[in-house]
Each structure stands twice: as structure tokens, then as C-alpha cells.
Amino acid sequence: SSSGLENQIFQYIDLHQNEFIQTLKEWVAVESDSIQPALRQKVTRMVELTADRLRDLGATVELVKLGSHKLPDVQSLLLPPLILAELGKDPQKPTVCFYGHVDVQPAKKEDGWKTDPYTLTEIDGNLYGRGATDNKGPVLAWINAVESFKALKLDIPVNLKFIIEGMEEAGSLGLEEIVKKENQRFFSDVDYIVISDNLWLSNRKPALTYGTRGNICFSVEVRCGERDLHSGSFGGIIHEPMTDLIALLDSLVDTSGRILIPGVYDDVASLMEEEKKLYEAIEFDLEEYKNNSGVKKFLYDTKEEILMHLWRYPSLSIHGIEGAFHEPGIKTVIPARVIGKFSIRQVPHMNISIGEHQVIKYLQDVFSKRNSPNKLKVSVPISAMPWVADINDPLYTAARRAIKTVFGQDPEMIRDGSTIPIAQTFQNITRKSVMMLPIGAADDAEHSQKEKISRHNYIQGTKLFATLFLEIAKLHGQLQEVSNTTTTN
Ligand SMILES: C[C@H](N)C(=O)N[C@@H](Cc1c[nH]cn1)C(=O)O
Ligand SMILES: [Zn+2]
Ligand SMILES: [Zn+2]
């Protein structure tokens, strides 16, 4: 149950919910898509807007330049700056660092959105818009929580730091280098790192996340020449790049979803009896999850198999083909250059560079058997490690307590099939505790045409973060007492 202080904060948050939603609307309106080069300036604008908001809270904000990167067919492109901010430097208080991103996945109304993706629209208690849940809503919920303490003139019981980036959806380009560089400075007094950029496993039951998969993204280019060709003039007499590419893509997974690349499963940890029990014990509504996807049948029928194939086995997904005609109607053309894009979600113990080599060798082997004169080029634009945390860390205890206070129930302890590229890097380099505390529900449709966050989750999420500050401070006080007692004894 909540204390007087918590009730005061919750009341403030409830009363100001429409203002919090208005700010989310302003943020969603910025098309901060980090994938399409033409929108890069909007990402930078979004980072600046976030920096302004943090300055309004009284934080010291540094905008760190990340330089530029090279994309195929595009001159080098400036990366948006990274926000490093801090609020409070009391040596008696623990320091909590929040990581989030304000860039989004691409979205166009024509993709099949019922509402304009960049106009936050409330329908039946849900706030629809690109970035509503991934990740502008949760970043703002953290900011709203801080604002609530400030507005009520309450002492924030923790020191706060913020790392907010604009390139997460493109693989957090440039961030790892800064984490290494700032390890002895920005991170030196950080006690805990919190990320809220994934979803619950259920539409209603809150969750705490202790693992994510990694990802290696591949680009496979097949080219026959410089120009597209008339399929009447050349069809039947050339090796078509698209035919080669489709054959390559078709060789990657079988009909049961098993990855066909030799060696891919070699390093996947074998399944122990203890771990099996863990999946059996999880509350997971398979029908609800299926309904959320809009797909009638999954590859597996039991909850245990589904969870294991999302969390502890790798998966391969084909994302798209660049250069192929994709508009409505028929264009009778043979595209000269096509680029297939796919990625492998990696699980603990798999190695990125081994995975890259296995895939490249396999594609070259498959291609060579086709006797095609076309040129094949395979590249790896993005890769990210899987992440696993220790749930016995005090940070998880604080979060469990905060969840119980705000949602009135214990969280489901989950892993996640998706990837936060920087999570494992934070853990490896800074050696601090990293925790994922999602506020989005399983039906939030991240990356999809109906992305949303519910008003309820956005507002309760704001309360959750405010309560987390209090719980971390309480726990930290206790921990310090314990360690003081230990040293005096
Ligand atoms: C979970 C997070 N909100 C997210 O969507 N992350 C992306 C990051 C990524 C991985 N490869 C390329 N980008 C994801 O999991 O797709
Ligand atoms: Zn995200
Ligand atoms: Zn995302």
C-alpha cells in the first residue's frame, strides 16, 4: 500500500495527466525516424527538444557530438547528438541513471495506419502514434515523475542522470564509444542503470525484464549491372539478381522456423530441467498474445515452446528488399541491383563475429552453386549483444516493491525477444546493475501500424518511476546501514 508521500505524488500525477499527454503529443509530432536519411534533422530536433525539457527540470545537460556515419549510396550523414544530463549530486543519495531513446521506426499513413502516425490520437483510452510506447512515452514518464517531485517542492531522494540518444533504432551508432570514454567520469558515481524500452508479456500484468536477445543485421546485395532492364527485351536471357536473391533468402530458414545456417545453434546453452520449470511457472496467455499479433497460428502450440523460442533460441527474420519494385501495379522491369535485409536475434553464449562468418560463408556457398555471373556482396550494418541481468540485485527488489505499490500486484519476471543494443555494453563496461522496467503492455504494437501506449500505462508508469526513486532511496539507506554496521563491527 502507498504512503502519504506517495499519495500526494500520485494525486499530482492524476491531476496533471492531460498536460503529460499534451507533451507526448508534441513529441510524437516530431518525425524523428533514425532510419531514413532524409529525416535525420528531425531526430536532431527531437534530441534538442528533449534537452530543453531536461533543462526546464533544472538538469545540467551536455549534448555530446557523435560525428557522422556512412550509409550506402548516401554521403556521410551526421549523427544526432547524445544527451548526458544530471540532476542532483548529493553524496548521501544513490545515483540512478535512466537510458532511453527519442528516435523512432519509420511510419507512413499509407502503411495502413488508421490514424496519422505523427498525430497522437486517443481512442478508447489508448494513445496511438509512432513512438508513443517506443520510446517517447516511457522517456516522458520518467521526466514527468521528476517534474512531479519538483512541482510539489519535494526533495528527490536520488541523484538522477540521463542518457538519451537518437539512434537506437539504427543500432545505437556511436554510443558504445561514449560509454567507454565516459566510464571514469559520467558513470563513476552511478549506482543503478534503468531502461524502460520494452513491453510486458501480458496486456495487463506488469513485468520486470532480466534478459533480451541480441541482433545481427545483414544486407545481401546482388547486382547484374548499372541499369534496370526491360523484362521483354532481356527476360529469359540473363541471370536475374532478384531470382538469385530470393533463392538466397529462401535458403535461410525451413518451414518450421529452424535456421539452416550450419553451426548457428552450436553455442546455444542446452536446456536444463530447472530452466524448463521456470517457463512452466510463468503466467502467459497464449491466446491473448496471438490476438495481439493478428496471426491465426504460431509455429508452436505450448506456452513453454513459445517463450523458449522468443527468449532462449535464436530466430531469423527477413525484413525487406531494397531496389525491388514495391509500389501498386506492375512495372515490367528486371531490377539491376537488389538488397535483401535480414537479421538473426542472438541468445546468450552466441558470438557475434562467429555468427557473421557462418552467415557470410553459407550465403557464398549457396550463391556459388547457382553459377550466376552476378556480383554478391554481404555486409553487417548493425550488431548488438544479448543481455542478461542478476535478478538478485537490490535494484530488482526496489522495482518489485514499486510495482506492487502502483499496480497492486507482483510483476512477472520475464526476458524479451527484442534487443536494446546498448544494454550489455552498459553492463560490461560500467559493471553497474542494469535493469529493464517496462511500462508498455504486450499489445502496444511496437514497430507496427497501431503503435500505442494506453493512458493508464503512461500515467501509472509515471507513478511507477516516482515510486522507484523512493524505493531505491529506502533500500540504499538500508544497504548503507548494513555495510556501516559491517565495517564498524
Ligand atoms: C526493444 C526496443 N524498443 C527496440 O525496438 N529495439 C530494436 C533495436 C534494434 C535491433 N536491431 C536493430 N535495431 C529492435 O529490437 O529491433
Ligand atoms: Zn525502443
Ligand atoms: Zn524500437
Automatic annotation (TrEMBL):
Annotated positions binding Mn(2+) 2: H101, D134, D197
Segments forming domain Peptidase M20 dimerisation: 211-367
GO biological process: proteolysis
Gene3D superfamilies referenced in this protein's UniProt entry, alphabetically: 3.30.70.360, Zn peptidases (3.40.630.10)
SUPFAM superfamilies given in the database record: Zn-dependent exopeptidases
Residues binding Mn(2+) 1: D134, E169, H447
InterPro entries the record matches: ArgE/DapE_CS (IPR001261), CNDP/DUG1 (IPR017153), Cyt/Met_Dipeptidase (IPR051458), Peptidase_M20 (IPR002933), Peptidase_M20_dimer (IPR011650)
Cofactor note: Binds 2 manganese ions per subunit.
Organism domain of life: Eukaryota
Recorded coiled-coil stretches: none
Annotated catalytic residues: D103, E168
MF annotations from Gene Ontology: carboxypeptidase activity; metal ion binding; metallodipeptidase activity
One GO term describing the cellular component: cytosol
Alphabetically ordered keywords of this record: Carboxypeptidase, Hydrolase, Manganese, Metal-binding, Metalloprotease, Phosphoprotein, Protease, Signal
Site features described as Important for catalytic activity, chain residue numbers: H230
Cofactor(s) needed by this chain: Mn(2+)
UniProt record similarity statement: Belongs to the peptidase M20A family.
PANTHER family from the UniProt entry: BETA-ALA-HIS DIPEPTIDASE
Protein name per Swiss-Prot or TrEMBL: ATP synthase subunit alpha, mitochondrial
Organism per entry: Platysternon megacephalum (big-headed turtle)
